[in-house]
Amino acid sequence: MLATLFVVAVAVFIMMRFSGDPVSALAGPDATPEQVAEIAARWGYDRPLPEQFLTYIADTLRGDFGLSVRSYEPASAVFLERVPATLLLGLMSLLCAVLIGMPLGIIAAVNQHSAYDRFVMGLSVLGFAMPNFFLGILLILIFSLYLHLLPSFGSGTWQHLVMPVATLSLSSAGAIARFARSCMLDVLNQPYVASARARGIPGFRRTIVHALPNASIPIVTILGLRFGDLIAGAIIVETVFAWPGVGRLLAASVASRDLAVVQVIVLSTALTMILANLAVDLLYGVLDPRVRRSSR
Predict the structure, then answer these.
(1) How far is residue 212 from each of residues 10, 44, 166, 192, 290, measured CA to CA in Å?
(2) What are the DSSP calls for 39-96, one per residue?
(3) Lowest mean pLDDT, pick from 96-100, 133-137, 200-204, 226-230
(4) Whether 86 contacts 245, CB under 8 Å
């Protein structure tokens, strides 16, 4: 985990420094050479890159992520201010995706090769392949401009949450449905499921009690990846709907060359993904006793 975070820290430092001159972006096109030099000295950009990097790593290890060049507030405070909005959007989207995708995938597996199976898989492919920005704009056109049912941007009420959640949920629900169907088909073809069928166990009990727990490990994996992607996956959606979350903050910070805020967001995204993968690894042992036995 520490090695991964260090590599991410090095990568974001290098990419942000070599993707453009932050001093020119801060000073503007009409700044005099004296003003440019003053800005560079104020933010430490006049020092050699190795010295800047060592200072950046040392400050990060102390929990000091620097100041935002836009608000002059600590970058960590600017980031934490936007976290609740992103968590609300991401967790609601993930919950809706699970509630939609899991039942659809399980029922499609039980009714393999049926018209329902083909219909669900077609919807899954459509949802997974449709770009978020296109779906978001389409929902705004239908429900805001034509029907006048929902607000097109902002936050504050549950109506503001409907379209962003729907946009994020669709692609995740499609992926979860496909994974759930594939995993359930593998398990339903196992001998112990056929034995349960021969003993007269009802189909619902066979599916939920016998098959689903054994098919849950790959499904938990994709859920962990989706949870770890809460921040990065919401950038486009938050921008389309002007949702005041971390994703929109990241887009604005990249455009304004606010390096401190970009660095803390990228590191936090990496840490979220790492912790989500760690939680998935630990859940493997809970869901499958064979994993616990093999690790002893």
Answers:
(1) 42, 56, 26, 13, 16
(2) HHHHHTTTS-HHHHHHHHHHHHHTT---B-TTT-SBHHHHHHHHHHHHHHHHHHHHHH
(3) 226-230
(4) yes
**What torsion, rounded to 10 degrees, do the Cα atoms 18, 19, 25, 27 define?**
10
Instruction: Tell whether the torsion through CA atoms of 266, 268, 274 and 277 is positive or negative.
Output: negative
Q: Cα separations (Å) of 28 from 21, 31, 40, 59, 229?
A: 11, 6, 13, 28, 34
Delimiting residues of CATH 1.10.3720.10 domain(s) in the chain: 78-294
Q: Which fold has domain 78-294?
A: MetI-like fold (1.10.3720)
The per-residue pLDDT for range 64-86, each reduced to its tens digit, is 888 887 778 888 899 999 888 88
Beta bridge pairs of residue 67: 74
For residue 271, CA distances in Å to 229, 268, 276 come to: 11, 5, 8
- pTM reported for the whole predicted model: 0.79
